[in-house]
Amino acid sequence: MSILPDGQPTQATSTPGAASPGAGGGPAPGRSGATTQLVLATLGFLVNFWGWALLGPLGPGIKDRLDLSFAAQSLLVAVPVVVGSLGRIPVGALTDRYGARVVFPLVTLATIVPVLTLSVVSSYPALIVTGFFLGIGGTAFAVGVPLVSGWYPPARRGFAIGVFGIGMGGTAIANFTTVRLADAYGSRAPFLLVAAILAGYAVLSFLLLRDAPGRVRPTGSAWARLAKVGRLTVTWQLCFLYAVGFGGFVAFSVYLPAYLSTAYGLDAADGALRTAGFVVLAVLARPLGGWLSDRLHPVPVLVWCFAGVAAFAVVQAFEPALLPVATVALLGMAVLLGASSGAVFALVGRVAPADQVGAVTGLVGAAGGLGGFVPPLVMGWVYGVQGSYAIGLMLLSDVALAAAVFTAVKMGGLARRDA
């Protein structure tokens, strides 16, 4: 894969001697087992994200119990996000090397340890340390995308990766069930349940998960491969777009309960339920973004999504009434952020070399997670200083608008080339 003078990539060439039953090194449409592997990957993404998001809905309750500041609460829920994001870089490279068949069960087993630890720790320092290791669950994303990309050809890859993105619904399940389970069955119940489900999936994936036939196994060290994809201009362009799209989704999914509690006076259960609705819409919109990208092109889909997010963020900055204006604005952002996430990885499927999808996914996925790490800290700091979320939401609008303009101007060449 080479870079044109304007920074846009040419079409990736096939690796000599590598099996290429379908375009781009992927399997031909209708290859037996592709749907099964997509379902297994999506399920693994979902259960690992469920564990990854456990601290978010518990944040308001922990804040009250430990008498934390808004900034301390924001840091607590953001730590798993940043660790899960940075961890995608080495995990994506390891997936390229050893395959999802090996890496997925290992990531799932490693996530069980911090989930169980959360059931017994209570102090703030212990929660921070446990949240650090809880971030392992967030790296599952960098395992699933290379797996799904290998089973589907470019013409169907956007929709397939979008379907895989439904696994983001693990965040919705966490928001919908965690507080209710803790209230009904005791504070340890949600952690024990998730640990058991993770253990079951680890066994299931070990028995049934398979890498795509003809998978190209890269040579050289993981760091050398990361350095190689890091030299591609388009990698960093994709990182920026995913930091805005998926980062915005992650930020809302982990911070929305606290925002609704503070801005609208909702209790923890009501805030978690509304956050679950936000996440569900974003999850359902992700395959829609991939589907539209397959039929139109990822670039125009991204432009419209980011422009819409900018408009809704401006509306929400004025803190309108929860019903109906704020609900429409927040749910509108959910749909557009979800669709933009699907469109970004439809673009990854078009431009990433077949044997480096994991490495590219790791870097782009890390940028998305880091994009979700910063906004909660900014929102908490701004509220602590100003007593208002307006400045934070206006900053989100500015960043989303910048992403729309950047996509139209700098990446429009991809759409013209493919047309």
- Unreliable segments of 5+ consecutive residues: 1-30
Average pLDDT level: 82
Largest sheet: none
Kindly provide the radius of gyration, computed on alpha-carbon positions and rounded to a whole number of angstroms.
20 Å
Total count of strands: 0
Helical element count? Answer: 18
Fraction of residues in helices? Answer: over 70%
The first-to-last residue Cα distance is 19 Å
SSE-based structural type: mainly alpha
Shape: globular
SSE series: HHHHHHHHHHHHHHHHHH
Strand content: under 5%
Q: Short description, anyone?
A:
The protein is an all-alpha fold. The chain is built from 18 helices and no strands.
Q: Could you characterize the architecture of this molecule?
A:
- The protein is mostly helical.
- 78% of the residues lie in helices and 0% in strands.
- Helix 12 (233-264) packs antiparallel against helix 13 (268-295) and helix 12 runs parallel beside helix 16 (357-386).
- The two termini are 19 Å apart.
Descriptive labels:
single chain, 419 residues, mainly alpha, 18 helices, 78% helix, disordered N terminus
Topology of helices and strands:
Elements lengths: L33 H19 L2 H12 L3 H17 L1 H11 L1 H19 L5 H11 L6 H11 L2 H11 L4 H17 L3 H20 L13 H9 L2 H32 L3 H28 L2 H20 L4 H30 L5 H30 L3 H21 L1 H7 L1
